[in-house]
Design goal:
Length: 64
């Protein structure tokens, strides 16, 4: 299991890009931190999520 934004998710073995797509995130509007390190957007398709990972996904929201 992977902890994503505080919730246990069965995402081990998926790439960051696969998880984001399945969860409905638009990669242009999010930042991803995995185990306290920022994941560069260019590597979302290469970085595999593993059991025990802790991931934070932050969405950018516009407004004023």
């Amino acid at each position: 299991m992977v902890t994503i934004n505080g919730e246990q998710v069965n995402a081990a073995g998926k790439t960051v890009a696969e998880y984001l797509e399945e969860a409905g995130y638009k990669t242009a509007y999010v930042a991803v931190e995995r185990n306290r390190e920022i994941v560069p957007r260019a590597t979302y398709g290469e970085v595999l999520l593993e059991d025990g990972d802790v991931v934070e996904i932050v969405r950018f929201v516009g407004g004023g």
